[in-house]
Amino acid sequence: MERTAWTDERLDDLAQRMDAGFDRVDGEIRDLRTEMHGGFQEVNRRFDGQSAELRSEIGALGGELRSEIGDLGGELRSEIGGLGGELRSEIGALGGELRSEIGGLGAELRAAMETQGAQLRGEMDALRQTILRVGGGMMIGLVGVIAAVLVRGV
C-alpha cells in the first residue's frame, strides 16, 4: 500500500476545493430559497383570490338560506298550531275515557275488597273457634294428666 504525503500545497488545494464546493452549495440554497419564496407568494395570491370568491358565494347562499328557513319556519308554525288543536281535542277525549275507566275499576276494587274482607273475617272466626277448642281440649287433658300424677304420687 502506497501512501501519499500531505504537503502544504496539497492541503491548500484541498481547502480551496472545499471552499468552492461550499460556495456552490450556498448559492444553490439561496436560489432554492428565492424560488420557494416566489412559489409561496403565488400560492398566497391564489388562495386570497379563491377565499374572497368563497366568502362572496357563502354570503349569497347564507342570505338565500335565511330566507328559506324563515319561510319554512312560518309554515311549520302554522302546521304545529293546527296539530296542537287536534292533539288537545284528542287528549281531552282520552282523559275523559280514562277517568271513566278508573272510576269503574275503583268500584270493582272496592267490591272485591269488601267480599274478600268478609271471607277473611269468616275464616278468622272459624280459626279462632278451632284454636279455642283445641286449646280447651289440651288444657282439660293436661289437668287430667296432672291430677293422675298427683293421685299416683301421693
Question: Describe it for me?
Answer:
Helices cover 95% and strands 0% of the residues. The protein has 1 helix and no strands. 0% of the residues are buried.
Element layout with pairings:
Elements: H1 8-153
Could you give the count of β-strands?
0
> How much of the residues is beta strand, in percent?
under 5%
Helix amount: over 70%
Q: Alpha-carbon distance between the termini?
A: 144 Å
Return residue spans where pLDDT drops below 50 for at least 5 consecutive residues: none
Global geometry:
elongated
The largest sheet is: none
Structural category is mainly alpha
**Alpha plus pi helix count:** 1
Report mean pLDDT, rounded to a whole number.
88
Radius of gyration: 56 Å
SSE succession = H
Which characteristics define this entry?
154 residues, elongated, mainly alpha
Briefly, what is this?
With 154 residues, the protein is mostly helical.
